Amino acid sequence: MQIYYLMLYFFVYGFLGWCTEVAYATTKQRKFVNRGFLNGPICPIYGVGVTVVVYFLTPYKDNLILLYALSTVLVTVLEGLTGYLMDKIFHHKWWDYTNQPLNIGGYVCLIFSLVWGVACVLIVRVIHPVIHKILTFIPHTLGIVMLAVLEICIFVDLYVTAAGILKLNHQLEAMAKIAAELHEISDKLGENIHEGMMDTMEATEERRKKLEAATAESRKKLEAATEEGRRKLENVTEESRRKLESATEEGRRKLEAATEGSRRKLSEGRTRIGGTADEARQQLQARSEELRKKYEELAGQGGAVSRRLMKAFPRMESRQYKETFNELREKLRLKEKMKRKK
């Protein structure tokens, strides 16, 4: 009979705890929020916590100070242990008291523990006797059937919730990998642009120097030929002068042709370097766009369980993929805001 009643206590106080959390969230956010870890209307931590308190501390209900002290210690240990285990099992921190004074690892807050101590005293001395009296009116056979149905429901709910959390973890892992690759592509694009500019500048400078050297040498040759031609021109006939002028003009044309050829080669070199850099850049940009689309698709694939948990636990944090989780939660908030506007 004792186990029978303990099981009933678990479901009753788990439900009452869920009602308390929902009422608190509704008052604070002005809308309904399912604050339970499970999908159903039950908070297992309340069911376990209050059942443990009434089972172990009822013998001390006449000693108010001792009852309060033991209640405070017991609920602190239970909350801290539950938060730690859920963190290690699911790789998420479900609540966080880090910003509160007198917190222990963010799992418990001693100020809230003092408040819970008062609540436990009230439960043990006032509420629980009434609850127990009501439960005694339930026929034993009916109670067994109810417990069987409720236990099946809670195990199914636990399985669905755990599967949803694992799915969320896989989703976060995939999104984090894509984000890392996008960051790598961004770095490569920057390096590609930098290297392309440096190569172009180096090639341009080298060809400019060659062009200047070739031009200077050709100019010297032309000037020398022109000067020599002038000297000869003074001593030759008119016909010879015309031939010399023709040769001088031909030399000038060759110089211009050589200069123009060098310019074309320089331009072609720039084009080749620029073309190679552009091709690599386009490939990286195409891959980046593909990854961004995949990232957005993953962000929109969140299941109902993960969406509910993000709403139920506003301070929930992912241990392994904190930035990705926060971004996913922000997208959910924006989507909810857009729905409310419509």
UniProtKB/TrEMBL annotation:
<feature type="transmembrane region" description="Helical">
    <location>
        <begin position="107"/>
        <end position="131"/>
    </location>
</feature>
<dbReference type="Pfam" id="PF06541">
    <property type="entry name" value="ABC_trans_CmpB"/>
</dbReference>
<protein>
    <recommendedName>
        <fullName>Apolipoprotein A1/A4/E domain protein</fullName>
    </recommendedName>
</protein>
<feature type="region of interest" description="Disordered">
    <location>
        <begin position="202"/>
        <end position="280"/>
    </location>
</feature>
<dbReference type="InterPro" id="IPR010540">
    <property type="entry name" value="CmpB_TMEM229"/>
</dbReference>
<feature type="transmembrane region" description="Helical">
    <location>
        <begin position="6"/>
        <end position="25"/>
    </location>
</feature>
<feature type="transmembrane region" description="Helical">
    <location>
        <begin position="137"/>
        <end position="160"/>
    </location>
</feature>
<feature type="transmembrane region" description="Helical">
    <location>
        <begin position="64"/>
        <end position="86"/>
    </location>
</feature>
<keyword id="KW-0812">Transmembrane</keyword>
<keyword id="KW-1133">Transmembrane helix</keyword>
<keyword id="KW-0472">Membrane</keyword>
<feature type="compositionally biased region" description="Basic and acidic residues">
    <location>
        <begin position="204"/>
        <end position="271"/>
    </location>
</feature>
<feature type="transmembrane region" description="Helical">
    <location>
        <begin position="37"/>
        <end position="58"/>
    </location>
</feature>
